Amino acid sequence: MPEVIIKYKGQKALKALQDLAKAFDMEIEQPIASENLTNAEKYKHLPIRFAENPDANALSGIWKDNPITLEEIRKESWGKHF
Fold it and tell me: Is the alpha carbon torsion for 56, 61, 62, 66 positive or negative?
């Protein structure tokens, strides 16, 4: 079903839109404030595509020219909190 976003200023306008939607057999959904959602809920609509023939060795050796230790990664990520 195609979707349209309509912005309105007041409850009176929303009520008129809801009445109009009923007359034309449309649905009106009110979004939930994103601060009330978990990360999983925020991003569940994102498309995820999986490789048809994944190669587990494709990333092998990507750090060979830039050796780094776990200590360095932690220090760079967490700064002085580490």
Answer: positive
13: number of Cβ within 10 Å: 12
∠ CA 62-68-72, nearest 5°, is 140
Tell me the backbone φ, ψ of residue 40, rounded to 5 degrees: -60, -40
Q: Higher model confidence: residue 13 or residue 44?
A: 13
Residue type, 67: P
Question: What is the model's pLDDT at position 40?
Answer: 76
- 3-class secondary structure, 39: helix
Question: The whole model's pTM is what?
Answer: 0.36
What are the C-alpha distances in Å from 74 to residues 40, 59, 67, 68, 69? 26, 21, 14, 10, 9
